[in-house]
């Protein structure tokens, strides 16, 4: 007891003081300072009228971010995966036929969650870095007559965005519900929920929305909500299996039971979980920032800055991964040049420059790096410093880019307008 309670704490008792690292990977990214400030305001109880007012704000704000009229637009507590799981376990009953579009890590995740939900899964896949053949999707939908088609719009593992418009039409024609994972694209690309005819779309904050991970915005069409509503089994004594009243089978998760979560977000305000207040504040501020900038302007910023990053990398003599016609705005894959140790490059970027860039998953491990330009980090200065750093690091590793070429190309792109640096 001879240690003053005010003595400096070290080791495990030290106050957190992480390095001010620039997160230029495929997410998470550095949160916008306004989002961090919003997270530190006073906590409120989950039924406090002030707080339920903030919940209603979030519903309205995210309708605009998702470009939808959907009444049921709210937040699921947890990272983006919580939104995905809530959507799929609430939509899918055991034995339901489902078509999963898979061309990357998150397509594999949709498949796994659908299988765990007991659905009869048919996968339409494509090599990582390519888009899925729309004819193959059409054939599968005609053959399987799925209840649900599940797809990823932009998959950060491959940096490719799948064309969504046609799939929405196809689902309407065949009376299937369309689920889309838009985690990596919402507020950075055109996630047009109503125009696509998507029924359930989910996201996370840590990509183009510019927040920390931990809240999953979700939107549901009325027909998706009605399907989930059928599975509500609140009265005691109702069997787990579907009953004569045409009820569906009870949702097999409590935490991710969207019917119960909608009972809390709706007028009834029935208790389910304790809403993660600080995360709700963060999500609310993320949406405010998007709408303040203007959704279209924000998408354009992601397109322009992402194109400048790609132009810079190409000018350095690096090869970009995947079908560039379908590249996401906000993340780029770079083939690791022969003879270069990808992990050493990432370590030098981090240790010398305090910049994080991404590695990769599955078939791409050791083959590509991934660099993101998202949300708060989607800026001219972050592109320039990342390109300058990468050039210096690659030189130290014995791989020489034309000096200054990357930075110059990016600058031309961002200062001289699109076509000055014409990289297509
Ligand atoms: C990044 C990403 C996620 C992230 O899920 P978390 O649970 O937040 O880690 C999900 N889906 C896609 C398509 C992503 O790119």
TrEMBL record:
Q: Which Gene3D superfamilies match?
A: Aspartate Aminotransferase, domain 1, Type I PLP-dependent aspartate aminotransferase-like (Major domain)
Q: Report what the protein is called.
A: Alanine--glyoxylate aminotransferase family protein
Keyword Nuclease in annotation: no
Keyword check for Ubl conjugation: no
| Domain Aminotransferase class V positions | 45-345
Question: What keywords appear on the UniProt entry?
Answer: Aminotransferase, Pyridoxal phosphate, Transferase
Q: Which family does it belong to?
A: Belongs to the class-V pyridoxal-phosphate-dependent aminotransferase family.
The molecular function terms of the Gene Ontology recorded here are: transaminase activity
Q: Cofactor(s) for this protein?
A: pyridoxal 5'-phosphate
Origin organism of this chain? Answer: Rhizosaccharibacter radicis
């Amino acid at each position: 007891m001879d240690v003053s309670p005010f003595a400096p704490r070290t080791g495990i008792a030290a106050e957190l003081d992480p390095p001010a690292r620039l997160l230029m990977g495929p997410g998470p990214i550095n949160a916008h300072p306004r989002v961090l400030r919003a997270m530190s305001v006073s906590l409120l109880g989950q039924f406090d009228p002030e707080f339920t007012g903030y919940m209603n704000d979030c519903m309205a704000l995210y309708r605009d971010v998702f470009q939808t009229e959907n009444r049921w637009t709210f937040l699921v507590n947890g990272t983006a995966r919580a939104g995905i799981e809530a959507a799929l376990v609430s939509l899918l009953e055991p034995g339901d036929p489902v078509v999963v579009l898979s061309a990357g890590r998150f397509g594999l995740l949709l498949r796994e969650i659908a299988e765990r939900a007991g659905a009869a899964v048919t996968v339409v896949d494509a090599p990582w870095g390519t888009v899925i053949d729309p004819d193959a999707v059409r054939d599968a939908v005609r053959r399987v007559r799925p209840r649900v088609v599940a797809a990823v719009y932009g998959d950060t593992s491959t940096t490719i965005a799948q064309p969504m418009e046609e799939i929405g039409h196809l689902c309407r024609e065949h009376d299937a519900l369309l689920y889309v994972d838009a985690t990596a694209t919402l507020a950075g690309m055109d996630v047009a929920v109503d125009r696509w005819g998507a029924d359930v779309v989910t996201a996370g904050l840590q990509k183009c929305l510019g927040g920390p991970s931990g809240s999953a915005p979700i939107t549901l069409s009325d027909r998706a909500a009605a399907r989930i509503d059928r599975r509500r089994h609140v009265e005691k004594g109702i069997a787990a299996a579907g009953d004569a009243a045409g009820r569906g089978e009870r949702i097999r998760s409590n935490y991710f039971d969207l019917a119960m979560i909608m009972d809390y977000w709706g007028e009834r305000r029935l208790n389910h979980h304790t809403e993660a207040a600080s995360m709700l504040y963060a999500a609310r501020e993320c949406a405010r920032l998007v709408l303040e900038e203007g959704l279209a302007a924000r998408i354009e910023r992601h397109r322009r800055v992402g194109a400048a990053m790609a132009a810079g990398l190409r000018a350095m003599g690096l090869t970009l991964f995947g079908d560039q016609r379908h590249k996401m705005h906000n993340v780029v894959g770079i083939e690791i040049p022969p003879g270069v140790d990808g992990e050493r490059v990432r370590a030098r970027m981090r240790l010398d420059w305090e910049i994080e860039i991404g590695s990769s998953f599955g078939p791409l491990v050791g083959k590509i790096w991934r660099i993101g330009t998202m949300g708060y980090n989607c800026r001219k200065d972050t592109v320039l410093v990342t390109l300058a750093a990468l050039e210096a690091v690659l030189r130290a590793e014995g791989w020489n880019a034309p000096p200054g070429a990357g930075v110059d190309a990016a600058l031309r792109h961002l200062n001289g307008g699109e076509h000055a640096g014409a990289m297509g």
